[in-house]
Design a protein that fits this description.
It contains 5 helices and 7 strands, in the order H-H-E-E-E-H-H-E-E-E-E-H.
């Protein structure tokens, strides 16, 4: 799935989650909301000196990942931002970030410092996304990131109204960027 069509919730997704969806689901959030996330990814990669050669919208929600950083979103929007990749891709990203900061890691494996670095990288993307969203009058906050590692990490999002999934490629390898959110503005007005 590409472009705007990836921003719609599907009936199959809804049925899988035990929810009812209208037959012709309409976008709840504007395309500019998801563009705020997409722009943030490109800006943070560039600012950190990491080559981002491709950012392709995909329908693939699961991928064999080994490192996943999750950042929550609260406020006018509620949901989760996921940044995930393989160990080699994560190590390439961490290596670039370390080199730009003149850090020489002491650990040989993907340890605590590397996990914290990937978490901070995802945090930068989330923070920039929320800055971009504030320009569109969305007031959002985020808690600190959580980083999961393992041989196969398959993250899932809990019942988002809408979802955006993008495959990122570059000199680091590839990664998956996924956002699942729902608008809380209408709920606030009803209360």
């Amino acid at each position: 799935m590409t472009g705007v069509s990836s921003l719609y919730s599907s009936n199959a997704d809804a049925a899988h989650r035990g929810e009812a969806r209208m037959e012709n689901a309409q976008p709840v959030l504007s395309n500019s909301v998801f563009q705020a996330f997409k722009r943030a990814v490109a800006e943070i990669f560039q600012e950190n000196g990491i080559s981002l050669e491709g950012q392709t919208d995909v329908d693939q929600r699961t991928n064999p990942l080994q490192v996943v950083a999750a950042v929550g979103v609260t406020g006018d929007l509620k949901g989760t931002i996921l940044f995930g990749c393989s160990y080699p891709s994560a190590q390439a990203i961490v290596g670039t970030l370390f080199a730009s900061s003149n850090i020489i890691p002491q650990e040989k494996s993907f340890g605590d410092l590397a996990k914290a670095t990937i978490g901070e990288f995802a945090n930068q993307i989330a923070g920039r996304s929320l800055m971009n969203l504030s320009q569109a009058a969305y007031d959002c906050n985020m808690p600190p990131p959580t980083v999961l590692t393992g041989d196969v990490v398959t993250p899932d999002l809990v019942a988002p109204e809408q979802e955006y999934v993008s495959r990122l490629t570059g000199g680091f390898g590839s990664a998956l960027f996924r956002v699942g959110i729902k608008s809380m503005k209408k709920l606030k007005k009803e209360c």
